[in-house]
Design brief:
Helix 4 runs antiparallel to helix 5 and helix 5 packs across helix 13. Helices cover 77% and strands 1% of the residues. The chain is an all-alpha fold. The two termini are 23 Å apart. It has 16 helices and two strands.
């Protein structure tokens, strides 16, 4: 497997400014994701159908526009793409801030438009970031950069709902969303430091072999989502990681669809307890991202990807068991499962991003990333739908136990030899 290495490294401060911009951006996104459904229900009387529609507007465009987003990333330099995607978020926040100025029906439409704008920015950023980092940083710096980005995103996800809730209570909707827009504009200023990286147009130029030749002579895929998905399945290691990711997202969402209902029925769960469990668990995602680049040398390899990938999905076996057992003991098992999941996820996301950056060529990366993200985002509503239907036709505690046990399958999958041997040990 090969990839192009062109370390720009003109400004070492990019390694700091990019994670800071990432934190500001994700904090603003999390603030809006928390606020819009809450305000829609509390102030506008939205029902479950409207809440679902808001969610569809947030995620469906990322699937439907994945191909066009990848082509934009291929066509323009990454500074322009990243700043453009951040401006889409600013527009989304501005729309959301004005929402309550209209009649309820119009306001909900404005919120839908805001979520669509947010979704367009998200898919552009997701693809552009994966194109930028392998070209802007030296190979040995990739784990550190991905770890910092992971810490920034997890920290924002943990802090934003709490801060936003206080902001809504103290200042109201418009000032809170206006602050989110200001944060996104601040991220734009930091993103102006990004080098004008463009996607390679010649797949052969400047390529270096990163791993032993596997005999694969497949020509670079055409710039289509189908071709991008083919890249994700081209080698045993890429195929295994992709299937593991799809299984993880699908199974996680099947469980999420019925978890809260089951816990309220079988354990002494309160709103405060549930909030503490989820917030504390997210802090372990930050810890996992932080430690990902500080692991023992033997775990900064495919072995680490397999070990922590196995732990992330196997954690849902513990969660399912806890929901089935019930009571205080069951609730403690659920807490342990969430902690294991978030910590292992924090590590394995850094490992997988580093592996994919090294395993996919620069010319193939935009469409391969877009296809990978679109597939995983499709697995989310599919899992929620399956969980919602299954939770109606069978006992939810039994369902959680069954799905938790089935999550052992992707855990075994990522323990495959292809993944364990996918990356050699690097220098400390």
């Amino acid at each position: 497997m090969t990839t192009t290495t062109r370390s720009l490294r003109k400004d070492d401060s990019l390694a700091v400014s990019l994670p800071v911009a990432n934190f500001l951006s994700f904090f603003a996104i999390a603030a809006v994701e928390f606020s819009v459904p809450f305000v829609a229900v509390d102030a506008l009387g939205a029902n479950a159908t409207i809440v679902a529609l808001l969610g569809i507007c947030r995620f469906a465009p990322q699937v439907l526009l994945a191909g066009p987003a990848a082509r934009l990333v291929e066509r323009f330099d990454q500074r322009a793409v990243m700043i453009g995607s951040e401006l889409l978020r600013v527009a989304a926040f501005a729309l959301a801030a004005l929402g309550l100025a209209f009649a309820p029906g119009v306001a909900l439409g404005v919120f839908c438009l805001a979520n669509i704008s947010l979704a367009c920015g998200s898919i552009l950023t997701a693809v552009s970031t994966q194109v930028l980092i392998p070209q802007a940083f030296a190979d040995e710096a990739l784990p550190k950069v991905y770890a910092r980005l992971g810490m920034a995103e997890s920290s924002a996800d943990a802090a934003a709902p709490f801060v936003t809730g206080l902001g809504l209570a103290a200042f109201g909707l418009a000032p809170t969303f206006g602050t989110a827009a200001a944060l996104a504009l601040g991220a734009c200023g930091l993103l102006a430091r990004i080098p004008r990286v463009r996607v390679t147009t010649d797949a052969a130029s400047g390529e270096e072999t990163r791993e032993p030749d596997t005999g694969d002579r497949t020509a670079p895929a055409k710039s289509t989502l189908r071709g991008g998905m083919a890249v994700n399945f081209r080698t045993p290691a890429l195929r295994t990681v992709t299937l593991w990711s799809l299984s993880y997202n699908f199974g996680q969402c099947v469980i999420e669809a019925v978890l809260l209902i089951t816990l309220l029925d079988t354990t002494p769960l309160s709103a405060a307890t549930y909030g503490v469990i989820r917030s504390c668990a997210v802090l372990f995602a930050v810890l996992g991202s932080y430690l990902a680049e500080r692991l023992p040398r033997g775990l900064r390899t495919g072995w680490g990807t397999s070990l922590f990938g196995c732990g992330a999905v196997a954690a849902y076996t513990v969660i399912g068991l806890g929901a089935y057992v019930g009571g205080t003991r069951g609730l403690l098992l659920v807490l342990a499962g969430f902690v294991i999941d978030e910590f292992c996820s924090g590590v394995v996301i850094v490992r997988v991003q580093t592996f994919r950056a090294r395993a996919i060529t620069d010319v193939e990366r935009p469409m391969a990333t877009a296809a990978y993200r679109a597939a995983n985002l499709t697995a989310v509503p599919a899992g929620l739908a399956v969980g919602g239907i299954a939770g109606v036709v069978m006992n939810s505690a039994n369902l959680l136990l069954a799905i938790g046990l089935l999550m052992v399958i992707p855990a075994v999958l990522i323990w495959s030899r292809a993944v364990r041997e996918s990356e050699p040990a690097t220098a400390a």
